[in-house]
Design brief:
Radius of gyration: 18 Å
Number of strands: 9
CATH topology: TIM Barrel
Number of domains: 1
Structural class: alpha/beta
Number of helices: 11
GO molecular function, one term: catalytic activity
Helix content: 40-55%
Protein name: Phosphonomutase
Shape: globular
Order of helices and strands: HEEHEHHEHEHEHEHEHEHH
CATH superfamily: Phosphoenolpyruvate-binding domains
Strand order of the largest sheet: 1-9-8-7-6-5-4-3-2
InterPro entries: ICL/PEPM, Pyrv/PenolPyrv_kinase-like_dom, Pyrv_kinase-like_dom_sf
CATH architecture: Alpha-Beta Barrel
Distance between the termini: 38 Å
Organism: Amycolatopsis regifaucium
């Protein structure tokens, strides 16, 4: 079992913050988080590209290479693999594994499950030690069909997936059904107001992702800060100092 896989404990889930650039990742790593993931929305937005678009592949790989220098394990959101070709997805998995990435998140966007399974198999064949988290969008883009989530999840596990991710799933009974059925660590998305870390832990979830929430909260904090300065109010948060942030960055040589 890899160090990253060992963090996925049903009932004591890994809380995985998702980042979109090096500075945020370095700051969180310095706080002791054992693993970080990337968010395709944040990475794509930083590049001025649509979420998960193939045009954001290079930026994703470039960021991943930088993040592996940090003292934390890194999982990379590769959307649908930036390609419909399983061979190309396998090559991407091998490239990321070679760079020191611990895992990838690979989503089906509710496309053909057979093709998605082929992508998973290709990724595991080219990078056997990489933790492949297979995301199915039954509850994110589909009709919240838990039976479909279980069916797709099991087919992805048969293809070699190490974990199953069903963002949008929140009903406790359905979560328990999924956990019992797929036989691998289950990853869910934290949805404020609908689920809590303690609640999901009690249902046997092994990983909880924050997804694009930190990025979107950063946008809100930036706006609140600018508005506070404009209106003569108090800053909404106490930020780290310039020197504290600078100390987290690579030294100039």
């Amino acid at each position: 079992m890899t160090a990253f896989a060992a963090l996925h404990v049903p009932g004591s889930p890994l809380l995985l913050p998702n980042v979109w650039e090096f500075g945020v990742a370095a700051f969180l790593a310095a706080q002791g988080f054992p693993a970080l993931g990337t968010t395709s929305l944040g990475v794509s937005a930083a590049e001025g590209e649509p979420d998960g678009a193939p045009s954001s592949k290079d930026a994703t790989v470039r960021l991943a290479r930088r993040l592996t220098a940090l003292d934390t394990l890194i999982s990379v959101d590769v959307a649908e693999g930036f390609s419909d070709d399983p061979g190309e997805v396998g090559a991407l998995a091998a490239e990321l594994a070679e760079a020191g990435v611990a895992g990838i998140n690979l989503e089906d966007a509710l496309g053909d499950p057979v093709r998605h399974a082929a992508k998973i198999t290709a990724a595991k064949e080219r990078a056997p030690g990489l933790f492949v988290n297979a995301r199915t969008d039954t509850h994110w883009l589909g009709q919240s069909d838990t039976e479909a989530a279980i069916g797709r999840g099991k087919s992805y596990v048969d293809a070699g997936a190490d974990g199953v991710f069903v963002p949008g799933l929140a009903d406790p009974a359905d979560v328990e059904r999924l956990v019992a059925a797929v036989g691998v660590p289950v990853n869910l998305l934290l949805i404020p107001g609908r689920v809590t870390v303690a609640g999901l832990a009690g249902l046997g979830v092994a990983r909880i992702s924050l997804g694009s929430l930190p990025y979107r909260m950063a946008l809100a904090a930036a706006l609140r800060t600018v508005e506070a300065v404009r209106d003569g109010g108090e800053l909404p948060l106490a930020p780290p100092s310039y020197d504290e942030v600078a100390s987290l960055l690579p030294e100039n040589h």
